[in-house]
Design brief:
- This protein is of the alpha/beta class.
- It contains twelve helices and 14 strands.
- An eight-stranded mixed sheet has the order 10-9-8-7-12-13-6-14, with helices on both faces.
- The N and C termini lie far apart (about 90 Å).
């Protein structure tokens, strides 16, 4: 009896061990979640396109712009067949720079969102000050009335808020530049995009490009504006499957390096499927790298993701529109690169060499 009992116990032990091994094998089939896997999914709504007669609000969320520029921009919008409306607090100046108090600047954003006949919002200027708005605006109010929101530079903060709220927005030119007449490519491509013609960009080869193809959600903007927002509700880099866009102006190489390493240490680069590097206008050259792009290339090459360099957007003469929060595909080849937005609208092919001359 003892032998039979020992035999039965041995069989049970073997069966149990096999079951445990089987369960362990199943667990091994599921890899440890990556930084990207654990991140939130960004799913943004596309605002309606504009048609002739629609109203467009002009507001100043950051630094002030002379009213002369605002009025000239209003004339440009009229030439496009749109009806401009100017925020109640536009024209105010606080402490020599801001376009009014924080409360006044927020009030104009809410005013534009609350007007049902306002279909788009164009910022007059960037500069500084949008960081004051992060904890004052709610994602719910930004999501309640999806409208195209246009701006760049310091407006990167608002793009982050809108992406987190689930609304696409446009990184593009503002009143400070539209006031020049609205006939340049920056302006006409913005006009076309607002009215349903979606750019598909073809770019020339760049020595710091990294080849490959990737799709994800476009986030980012001005590096020194969005990096301080990490961990706040304006931080769209908390999402997964990112295509990260970066531009900068008048910053030293070492500060760009610092901000980029902050992104890396916070796991942002590990959540990226690809990178678009825009203009680095009047930035420093204190290191012996050939360019800012070549410096960043030394970091990005280890991530095994495609990188597009030299996209003409930022603080340079050419600042072509990008759709933040939109699904986008980048295809980087040895002969150049393509950036394609996967949203509703009529596709418009744009060869950037014809615009930049390079």
């Amino acid at each position: 009896m003892n032998k039979m009992r020992l035999l039965a116990q041995s069989i049970i032990f073997v069966l149990s061990a096999n079951l445990l091994l089987s369960c362990s094998d199943d667990d091994d089939d599921t890899s440890t979640p990556t930084e990207n896997d654990k991140a939130m999914i960004l799913n943004c709504k596309q605002p309606d396109y504009l048609k002739a007669g629609d109203k467009v609000a002009l507001i100043s969320p950051s630094y002030f712009t002379p009213m002369e520029n605002v009025e000239k921009t209003a004339d440009v919008l009229r030439s496009w067949g749109l009806e401009p409306v100017i925020g109640p607090n536009v024209g105010k100046v606080e402490v020599g720079r801001y376009a009014g108090t924080t409360e006044e600047r927020i009030s104009d954003i809410r005013w534009a969102l609350d007007q049902p006949d306002v279909k788009a919002i164009i910022c007059n200027r960037g500069g500084y000050g949008s960081i004051h708005l992060i904890n004052e605006l709610t994602l719910e109010e930004l999501a309640s009335a999806p409208k195209w929101f246009v701006g760049f530079s310091d407006i990167s903060t608002l793009h982050g808020l809108l992406t987190r709220a689930g609304v696409m927005s446009i990184h593009g030119t503002m009143s400070s530049f539209l006031a020049g007449g609205g006939t340049d490519a920056n302006s006409t491509l913005l006009r076309d995009l607002l009215m349903s013609r979606v750019p598909r960009y073809d770019l020339p080869a760049h020595p710091a490009n990294i080849e490959g193809q990737a799709s994800g959600v476009l986030v980012g903007g001005n590096l020194c504006t969005f990096v301080p927002n990490l961990g706040t509700q304006a931080d769209a880099t908390m999402g997964r499957d990112l295509i990260l866009f970066i531009e900068e102006v008048e910053e030293s190489m070492h500060n760009i390096d610092r901000q980029f390493n902050i992104l890396a240490m916070n796991g942002v680069l590990s959540r990226c499927r690809g990178i678009i590097l825009g203009e680095f206008t009047d930035c420093g050259h204190e290191f012996t790298y050939d360019s800012v792009e070549s410096m960043l290339h030394t970091y990005l090459v280890k991530y095994n993701i495609p990188v597009v360099c030299g996209f003409p957007a930022g603080h340079g003469t050419v600042n072509l529109p990008l759709i933040m929060g939109a699904p986008v595909t980048i295809d980087v080849r040895n002969d150049g690169a393509t950036i394609q937005f996967n949203i509703d609208g009529e596709e418009q092919w744009v060869n950037t060499m014809y615009i930049t001359g390079k």
